[in-house]
């Protein structure tokens, strides 16, 4: 099947996922339960009881009182398309390299999605704790990238594909974690 078809499929699915995410700009509404009735450690309450900020606000700078929630939404916007793209790519890939690449992406992104869902359902974390966790995750991301490069150096095509998938996912998570941790330190 060659390299071009799975790559075109990945680009298509990634763009389709991003396009679908653009339609989610409506406020989530009052049917969501409040994050917490208590004021946050930052000194501000999360907003009126039962409301969440609109999605547009979650995609810009992290809104005060909603850092954990907006991080979870952003992580879902990455993980859901990659889970489906990886699963579909793995199903249609005949080459062992691409089979390993796509299925590892699906597995990795589904774990990211599970973490994001836990974040959506959890109380809003303290700002300093969230920053520390993001920096710890950034350090772990470096280990993921190193492990992915090690796998990619192996002779078996399936392991090479899996290794490059880990490098891709770990590299993106490194950028994601640092992008969100640095402003929390201010």
Automatic annotation (TrEMBL):
Database matches in InterPro entries: DUF6992 (IPR054261)
Entry-linked PROSITE patterns: PROKAR_LIPOPROTEIN
Domain of life: Bacteria
Organism: Thermus brockianus
Transmembrane region(s): 75-94, 101-121, 133-152, 164-182
The protein, known as: Uncharacterized protein
The UniProt record lists the keyword Signal: yes
Segment forming the signal sequence: 1-21
Key word Transmembrane helix present: yes
Keywords from the UniProt entry: Membrane, Plasmid, Signal, Transmembrane, Transmembrane helix
């Amino acid at each position: 099947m060659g390299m071009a078809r799975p790559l075109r499929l990945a680009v298509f699915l990634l763009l389709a996922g991003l396009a679908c995410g653009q339609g989610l700009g409506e406020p989530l509404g009052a049917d969501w339960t409040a994050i917490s009735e208590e004021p946050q450690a930052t000194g501000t309450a999360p907003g009126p009881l039962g409301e969440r900020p609109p999605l547009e606000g979650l995609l810009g700078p992290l809104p005060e009182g909603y850092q954990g929630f907006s991080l979870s939404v952003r992580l879902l916007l990455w993980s859901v398309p990659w889970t489906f793209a990886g699963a579909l790519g793995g199903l249609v890939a005949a080459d062992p390299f691409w089979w390993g690449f796509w299925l590892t992406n699906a597995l990795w992104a589904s774990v990211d999605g599970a973490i994001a869902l836990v974040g959506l359902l959890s109380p809003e974390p303290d700002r300093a704790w969230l920053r520390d966790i993001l920096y710890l995750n950034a350090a772990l991301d470096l280990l993921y990238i190193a492990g992915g490069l090690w796998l990619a150096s192996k002779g078996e095509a399936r392991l090479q594909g899996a290794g490059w998938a880990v490098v891709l996912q770990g590299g993106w998570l490194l950028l994601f974690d640092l992008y969100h941790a640095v402003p929390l330190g201010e």
